[in-house]
Amino acid sequence: MNLEMIRAAYARGQGVVRRTPLLSSPFLDEIAGKRVFLKAECLQHTGSFKFRGGWSALSGMDPEVRAKGVIAFSSGNHAQGVTLAAKMHDTSAVIIMPKDAPRVKIENTKALGAEVVLYDRASEDRDAIGAKIANERGLTLVKPYDEPFVIAGQGTCGLEIAEQAAEEGIEHAEVIACCGGGGLTSGIALALEADAPSFKVRPAEPEGFDDAARSLSAGTIKRNAALSGSICDAIVTPQPGDITFPIMNRLCGAGLVVSEGDCLKAMALAFERLRIVIEPGGAVALAAALFHGQEIEADTVIVTASGGNVDKAVFERALATLE
Amino acid sequence: MNLEMIRAAYARGQGVVRRTPLLSSPFLDEIAGKRVFLKAECLQHTGSFKFRGGWSALSGMDPEVRAKGVIAFSSGNHAQGVTLAAKMHDTSAVIIMPKDAPRVKIENTKALGAEVVLYDRASEDRDAIGAKIANERGLTLVKPYDEPFVIAGQGTCGLEIAEQAAEEGIEHAEVIACCGGGGLTSGIALALEADAPSFKVRPAEPEGFDDAARSLSAGTIKRNAALSGSICDAIVTPQPGDITFPIMNRLCGAGLVVSEGDCLKAMALAFERLRIVIEPGGAVALAAALFHGQEIEADTVIVTASGGNVDKAVFERALATLE
Predict the structure, then answer these.
(1) Could B277 and A277 be called an inter-chain contact, meaning their C-beta atoms sit closer than 8 Å?
(2) Fewer CB within 10 Å, N or C, chain A?
(3) Which among B112, B77, B68 has a CA at the least distance from the CA of B98?
């Protein structure tokens, strides 16, 4: 896994992957007490940065292998990213999803053309289900984060951040990334090491699922106690990856940990001040910038809003936090 | 009013005015039965295209005149655009707003630094109030649409549409613009006449406030019967402008007219499929594309989402239309 793979993924994505805008609002700056810029990955195809990794993986695959189809495990965003990338490459996708994934994500994944196989998180072994289908049909597994081509795709977000920060005249910043398995965080960290070496990347996570923060603090991989039960479903993973963690450990600053209430408030402020829709897991970085300023040294913060696939009911809970 | 003024406004806005993204979703294409692209002006500074006109007017003003301050009439979006542009030019803004403007727009305008003067639409003469203040203080009036520098600023949205459509490989399209007084519609029409002459621009309006559609049909300016009472507050104006109408009459196709219910549904679909927040007046063009396809010949439609400054309560009404 290296910078050249990110640059190659960027080249393969030209004209396909959206260059998402870097947004800001004086109202958010005032709340945070510093300048806040938001990389709106909720506006990426399929509504999250995961399309970057999906496109990178599919476009980087041997065409004969790709033609047999791909398979992925995902609670939703990786599923949609891989499915659309597969469709655009005229091949098929099987997606193994937990039964309790947000309805909108399951439905969208099907509507984009995937064959969705649902499993029960508590009683069934998704790896066994997936391996059986993959073997029977000759499908290639596209892992959600611990896979170099996927990390390379997510890293293209970092290349864009470096470009856009330069356009805004930003010379020093902390870059806070919503962190699940660490694909986005490690990809951005590698990209910025090269293109904006004065920037420090830090992962953000929800309380109770702060495996990255604890792993960085310990210098070794730590697991989460629970594997479900967060509204931040998009970024709940068992632990940082074997490929992503060493990169994060070398390049990232300390993790930031926010409450679900902070996430809902950040979603509401993104609605009101930036006119974008972000999901709880995509709001952890903004929540950290807005409500944990005392843990951030830099006077400029760039946050990723990693996704916007949220059920109406959850979004209404966020809106209810406005006054 | 001519193309060169639009190109000059574009040059003055470089590095300041946001190049808003052109978004799309296969789900919206399916509903419309054609390809739909959305120019997300809700992501412009202050949450609407009006910042383009405000910036153009302020940046094009004689510095000594500008230093004395500006004044504007607005239900909210023009107010915020002019106020932020004034602030960025280190001058002051007085904004005359109707008392029944959305609360979020009044509060934001004040918070951005304007002196807000409220008036009663039914009983008070806003022109008289404005003229008195302007004369007393030597302020320059920035009209919301019937002003060449403002139209030039709105027209920069059209230059971007032409560029982005070319990037997407779009050769023929109908471009549907949310239309109040016609500043955005006429500005886009002038820009596309030069840079994408195969595109046809059409205004979209809410039922009961379809002055542009009736004026285009008659070939002469027609007034609205009512001046308030629409959730599409941003685009309720008495009639097309004396400068904007001749441009629209020369260049635009027939107007499209949508119901408030269509607007709310379009807002909900923009939430769900594009992850953006649009206000009712900013949703009329998308509503026309999605629900009035039988009135649209082209197989590709580009709509403006002109603004996203919406009170929570109205947005919740839109969300309630989802299933």
Answers:
(1) yes
(2) C
(3) B77
- The yes-or-no answer to whether B3-48+147-319 and B51-141 have a common fold is yes
Report d(CA A298, CA A296) in Å as an integer.
6
Q: CA nearest A271 in B: which residue? A: B277
Rounded Cα distance between A195 and A155, Å, is 12
B104 contacts A43? CB cut-off 8 A: no
- H or E segment and range at residue A50: helix A50-59
Q: Write the residue in B111, B167, B272 that is nearest to A27 by C-beta.
A: B111
CB A161 within 8 A of CB A188: yes
Task: Give the chain B residue nearest A276 (alpha carbons).
Answer: B276
Provide the pLDDT for residue A235. 82
β-strands A174-178, A300-305 pairing: parallel
Q: Is the pLDDT of residue A121 over 90?
A: no
Q: How far apart are the first and last CA of chain B?
A: 46
Residues of chain B contacting A21 with CB distance shorter than 8 Å: 18, 20-21, 43
Residues contacting B13, CB < 8 A, separation 6+: B52, B55, B56, B59, B153, B156
Helix (H) or strand (E) holding B287: helix B284-291
ipTM of the complex: 0.95
Closest residue by Cα to residue B91 from B46, B136, B137, B150: B137
- The tens digit of pLDDT for each residue in A3-36 reads 999 999 999 999 999 999 999 999 999 999 999 9
Confidence of residue B309 (pLDDT cuts 50, 70, 90): very high
Chain A CA closest to residue B312? A319
The answer regarding whether domain A3-48+147-319 maps to CATH 2.120.10.30 reads: no
In chain B, domain spans? 3-48+147-319, 51-141
Q: Model confidence over A129-147: pLDDT tens digits? A: 989 999 999 999 999 999 9
Q: Which of B276, B316, B319 has the CB atom closest to A275's CB atom? A: B276
- Report whether pLDDT(A227) > 90: no
Q: Spell out a b/e string for A269-307, using b for 16 or more CB atoms within 10 Å of the CB, else e.
A: bbbbbbbbbbbbbbbbbbbbbbbbbeebebebbbbbbbb
- Residues on A contacting B at a C-beta cutoff of 8 Å: 15, 18, 20-21, 23, 26-27, 40, 42-43, 47, 104, 108, 111-112, 167, 271-272, 274-278, 308-309, 312, 315-316, 319, 322
Please, are residues B6 and B60 in contact by the beta-carbon 8 Å criterion?
Answer: no
Measure the CA–CA gap between B322 and A104, rounded to whole angstroms. Answer: 12
Sheet containing B93-98: which strands, arranged edge to edge?
A: B115-119, B93-98, B70-73, B140-141
Distance from CA of A198 to the nearest CA of B (A): 23
Tokens read off for A172:
């020093």
**Element of type H or E holding A7:** helix A3-13
Confidence at residue A302, expressed as pLDDT on a 0 to 100 scale? 98
CATH of A51-141, one of 3.40.50.1100, 3.30.390.30, 3.10.20.30, 1.25.40.10: 3.40.50.1100
- Say whether A276 and B277 touch across the interface (CB within 8 A): yes
**How many angstroms away from the CA of B278 is the closest CA of chain A?**
7
Token pair recorded at residue A25? 């609002």
Give the global pTM: 0.96
